[in-house]
């Protein structure tokens, strides 16, 4: 179960932020640590199986006074089942298909017409 913790730092100094990041990164189960907030005074820790109480105690002991603002479970986004789009070719009857099932197929006769661009192109239109 992934957890997301938002921890408020009481002292807004570069030294306190740096030390808090170092303590949070080495905690067991932590996958990401980030500084957020208007004054970069909130530490956001995401992890799986993180002992929140021991992390808060370690931060208070080694960095500065901290307060746990929020603790929430991170849910994985549900993937929508992908619908496979099948390209359906339109059904049409070839010249050999009978229209009615008891008719005999009639062969089609094609007339070859020369291309209007002249004999130099070598194209024949059917």
Question: Could you walk me through the main structural features you see in this protein, from its secondary elements to its overall organization?
Answer:
This protein has 126 residues and is of the alpha+beta class. Helix content is 18%, strand content 28%. It contains two helices and six strands, in the order E-H-E-E-H-E-E-E. It has a four-stranded antiparallel β-sheet with strand order 2-3-1-4, covered by helices on one side. Strands 5-6 form a two-stranded antiparallel ribbon. Strand 2 (30-36) and strand 3 (42-48) form a beta hairpin. The longest helix has 12 residues, at 14-25. The radius of gyration is 36 Å and the shape is rod-shaped. It starts with a strand and ends with a strand. The model has no long low-confidence stretch (mean pLDDT 78).
Derived from helix and strand composition plus strand pairing, the structural class reads alpha+beta
Order of helices and strands: EHEEHEEE
End-to-end separation in angstroms reads: 68 Å
Widest sheet, order of strands: 2-3-1-4
Low-confidence stretches: none
Could you tell me the mean pLDDT? 78
In percent terms, what proportion of residues is strand? 25-35%
DSSP summary, beta strand count = 6
Provide a count of the helices: 2
* Oligomer class: single chain
Largest sheet: 4 strands, antiparallel
Q: Provide the gyration radius in Å.
A: 36 Å
């Amino acid at each position: 179960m992934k957890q997301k913790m938002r921890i408020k730092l009481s002292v807004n100094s570069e030294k306190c932020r740096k030390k808090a990041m170092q303590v949070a990164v080495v905690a067991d189960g932590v996958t990401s640590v980030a500084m957020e907030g208007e004054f970069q005074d909130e530490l956001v820790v995401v992890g799986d199986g993180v002992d929140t109480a021991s992390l808060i105690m370690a931060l208070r002991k080694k960095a500065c006074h901290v307060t746990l603002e929020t603790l929430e479970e991170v849910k994985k986004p549900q993937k929508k089942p992908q619908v496979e789009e099948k390209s359906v070719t339109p059904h049409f009857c070839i010249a050999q298909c009978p229209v009615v099932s008891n008719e005999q197929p009639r062969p089609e006769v094609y007339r070859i017409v020369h291309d209007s661009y002249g004999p130099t192109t070598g194209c024949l239109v059917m």
